[in-house]
Amino acid sequence: MRVLLTGAAGFIGSHIADLLVARGHDLVVLDNLSPMAHGPGEPPQWTDDHELVRGDVTDLTLVTALCRDVDAVCHQAAVVGHGVDPSDAPMYTLNNDHGTAVVLAAMHAAGVGRLVLASSMVVYGEGRYACGAHGTVRPGPRRPNDLARGRYEPRCPECGADLAPLLVGEDAPLDPRSTYAATKVAQEHLASAWARQAGGSVVALRYHNVYGPRMPRDTPYAGVASLFRSALRRGEAPVVLEDGHQRRDFVHVTDVAMANALALESTVDGYTAINVCSGQPHTVGELAATLAEACGGPPPRVAGGARPGDVRHVVADPALARKVLGFTASVGLADGVAAFAHDPLREPAGLGAAMAAPRR
């Protein structure tokens, strides 16, 4: 299969590129090499094995030309992460939503009918919860007064009791709590509409907390594992917000790359959204403590507080990925974090190019 891979020089995209070639696929690799993501200078060394096209997914003429010679598109290019504040909204929407619309238009013009789309667990907002008295319920946003008093668990909307977290399936309502999350929901909706209008096939992969080699570091758009690792390399304690008991699903980037390969090679028709996760809940505090031990650094410092838009627990149900793609994550947290303590990370990128789009 010949595949156009966008965001191919970035964290997740570069691992997908290496794996697809190893599995015998031909690639057209595209990345804009944004200074905000990659810093100044030459492309990262992991692009040396691929013939990289330097360009942007918002360039309709370029993307259409690249699509004319491929069987499928694997769309990873995006601005990622929590961001700085709402002033990031134009950057996120331009690159994530308009960029996806351009890719879909180019695919239609070129007659390409198969797309694998990088989505995210952030589309769910809060995870799935149960109340002892009222069963499965949807909590609203956490109250600022509760957070200020150190009460972090979401409350039952019926009785106000703390809730127990459950695994989140793909049928959960979409409830974005940040600009980034809103753009990921929009990407999914655009792709779903395209699949219906064009008769195409889309697998939207909802990545949970991805970590591993080539992660960006020292940027407000980096993931929590990278932020902890950067602090430890500076000899500082990783700072954990809230009480450290918030639960996430940490999945290694090599597993994410495999999920993409399986999605491209699958025979799924229409539009399907699938969690890419381990299915094993771990707390953010546990991640920080495990990484600190592996790095030989100071133990985490629990700081309390919460960022606007942060959610308490999101742990995914892996059943659909196993059923549809035959995918099961293979890297456990202990082994993955032990390696991550010494993995090469992407060099710090200059933040001066604030309107440039980072790529995965």
What are the salient characteristics of this protein?
single chain, 360 residues, alpha/beta, seven-stranded parallel β-sheet, 19% strand
Gist of the model:
It contains eleven helices and 17 strands. Strand 6 (128-131) and strand 7 (135-137) form a beta hairpin.
Radius of gyration, taken over Cα atoms and rounded to an integer in Å? 20 Å
Mean pLDDT: 91
Using DSSP, what is the number of strands? 17
The secondary structure category is alpha/beta
Low-confidence stretches: 350-360
**Percent helix:** 25-40%
Which overall shape is indicated by the principal axes computed on the Cα atoms? globular
End-to-end distance, in Å? 22 Å
| Percentage of residues in strands | 15-25%
* Count of alpha/pi helices: 11
- From N to C, what is the helix and strand string? EHEHEHEHEEEHEHEEHEEEHEEHEEHH
Strand order of the largest sheet: 3-2-1-4-5-9-14
Please tell me about this protein's structure.
The chain is an alpha/beta fold and 360 residues long. It is built from eleven helices and 17 strands. It has helices at 11-22, 35-38, 60-67, 89-110, 144-148, 179-198, 224-233, 253-265, 284-295, 319-325, 333-340; strands at 2-6, 26-31, 52-54, 72-75, 114-120, 128-131, 135-137, 164-168, 201-207, 209-211, 239-241, 247-248, 250-252, 271-276, 282-283, 301-304, 315-316. The strands form five sheets. Strands 3-2-1-4-5-9-14 form a seven-stranded parallel β-sheet, sandwiched between helices. The chain has a four-stranded mixed β-sheet with strand order 7-6-8-17, with no helix packed on it. Helix 1 (11-22) packs across helix 8 (253-265), helix 7 (224-233) runs parallel beside helix 9 and helix 9 packs across helix 11. The chain is globular, with a radius of gyration of 20 Å. The chain starts with a strand and ends in a 20-residue tail after the last helix.
